[in-house]
Structures are given as C-alpha cells and as structure tokens.
C-alpha cells in the first residue's frame, strides 16, 4: 500500500529567467530566452515528487486568491496531489520566486513568500485529519508553524522528515522534536553551523555541531555533485553522487532528492544508504530538465536511471 505523506510547506509561482551570467551591480542584462511562470516552491516541488513517485501526497499549504493561486491549485490536482488542505488567503498574494538561472544551470532565487506566511498552526492541525504515515516539512513557511506541525506529529508517533531549507543562522532548531531524517544542503549547513561541509573532516565537524542542536536518527547533508554525507550519531559515510546525464537547470534538485529519499526510506524499512542513492538519482534527473515542480521524475524514470547507472 502506498505511503501517505502529509507535507506542510510552501507553494510558489516561479518566474524563471535565463541568463548567461547574473548581472553586475548597476548592469541590465537581457533574458537569454525561455522566460516563464512555472510551478515551484520547495514544499510544492516535494509534494509533486511524492505523487509522481507513487506516494499518497497530501499537501497543506496556503495560496493567494489570485490567478497564480488558481493555476497552482489546478496543477496540484492534475498531479494527483490530495488538495483537501490547500487553503486560500484573501490578504496576501501567492508566493512568488524569481529564479535567475545561469547558462551553467546554477540558479539564484529571490523569494516573496506572500500567502505562505499566513499558514497557521490550525491549518496544520486540521491536516492531521488525513491520518498520515509521515510528516514532511520545509522551512519556507513560518518556522513556528513547522515546529507546531512537528510537535503534533511527535505526539501521535508519526515519523518526521525535514528538508532544512531555506536556512537562517538564528533558526531555533533545538525546538524541533526528534526526527527521522534532517537534511540541509551545503549552504544551509554553513548557515546553521558556520562550518563549510567540505571533505570528510569538514562534513563531520558540521554534522557533530548540528547534532548538538537537532535530534535526528539520520543527518543527510546534500553536497550536490559531491554526493551526500550521512551521519547517525555513531557512524558516518559519504555516498557518491551520480553523474547527471546533462545539466539544464538545478532548480528543485534538492527538493526532489529529499522527497525521493524520504519515500524510499519509508518503503524500504529504513535503509538510509539505499534511500540516499534513490534520492541522488532523483536529483540527477531533475537537473537535466527545465523548471521546478515540472522537472521532478517519476518512479519509473528513477528505476531506469539506476539501471543505467549501477553503483
Ligand atoms: O528549491 C527550489 C524552489 O525554491 C523554487 O521552486 C522556488 O520557488 C524556491 O522556493
């Protein structure tokens, strides 16, 4: 039976712009073609991933009462996401992210969170009515709401998975209850710890620092093309990345990685190495396509990729 995952997180419309390089201060650059409004948001990207990977994806989020909100809502329905807990705020517009994508595929994002800031603890509490097998959280919503959803899950014995993005140095991570997996990327790890997770030693120092603040069964630091560092409080390991078949757009690669890893972990009885490899395959496919939510692969695509790229 497919796992039911409650995702309490963000929804954005992405304004995706392509450029050879980002502009210098005072410089105006022309878009390099392909400007588009595309479905995004770290929460929504993960919700789409769960649906495409065969999970029962329940999304608790807040949209604005505007055209972007309407388009995103229809998109979620088309993707097979359970939208029973997608709420509409009448004061703030739908979240908007300007995604500046360089020709290398790297991106820089500026986010106006809009209606995401209006998600409430009551919204999250109501969503637990779906009786989920797991709770998945990101930090593009007010941190206090993420903490409150996590506490509700902990009180019900529901495992918690956190994609720790975006990060701010003063995030009170200590207030989160014990989790199954906590997963920041390199930039977020540096923001939380002040340590650059470079090389095994740098990663271990950062992991030890983070694990003093965060109670989790597995810490997974996503290192992009350098792989992922895993630590369970006793043992660590470096899981190599897959070589992406091409790099078009790195947007949402981390979201796809963490979501795919989470679902696989729930399905494989908690084998973290296998789950991380599956997540890494999802990330490698995602970077080979344009867009955010639209670039996330299906289960069949990941399995075919793993067959073409055996460990
Ligand atoms: O992680 C990628 C996402 O970050 C984009 O889709 C954008 O909406 C921002 O939230």
Q: How does the SSE layout of this entry go?
A:
Elements lengths: L3 E5 L3 E8 L16 E5 L1 H11 L3 E9 L2 H12 L3 E8 L5 E8 L4 E6 L8 H7 L6 E5 L4 H13 L4 E4 L15 E5 L2 H8 L5 H13 L4 E7 L5 E4 L4 E4 L13 H15 L4 H15 L12 H10 L3
Parallel strand pairs: 1-4, 1-8, 2-6, 4-5, 8-9, 9-10, 10-11
Antiparallel strand pairs: 2-3, 6-7, 11-12, 12-13
Overview of this structure, please?
This protein has nine helices and 13 strands. 50% of the residues are buried. The model has no long low-confidence stretch (mean pLDDT 96). The strands form two sheets. Strands 5-4-1-8-9-10-11-12-13 form a nine-stranded mixed beta sheet, sandwiched between helices. It has a four-stranded mixed beta sheet with strand order 3-2-6-7. It has one domain (4-11, 41-93, 114-308): Ribokinase (UDP-N-acetylmuramoyl-L-alanine:D-glutamate ligase), CATH 3.40.1190.20. Helix 1 (42-52) packs across helix 7 (253-267), helix 5 crosses helix 6 (199-211) and helix 8 (272-286) packs across helix 9 (299-308). It is globular and about 50 Å long. The two termini are 28 Å apart. By secondary structure, the chain is an alpha/beta fold. Helices cover 33% and strands 25% of the residues. Bound molecules: alpha-D-ribofuranose. The site of alpha-D-ribofuranose has 15 residues, from strand 2, helix 1, strand 7 and helix 7. Residues 12, 14, 40-42, 45, 97, 109, 111, 140, 251-252, 254-255, 292 line the site of alpha-D-ribofuranose (RIB).
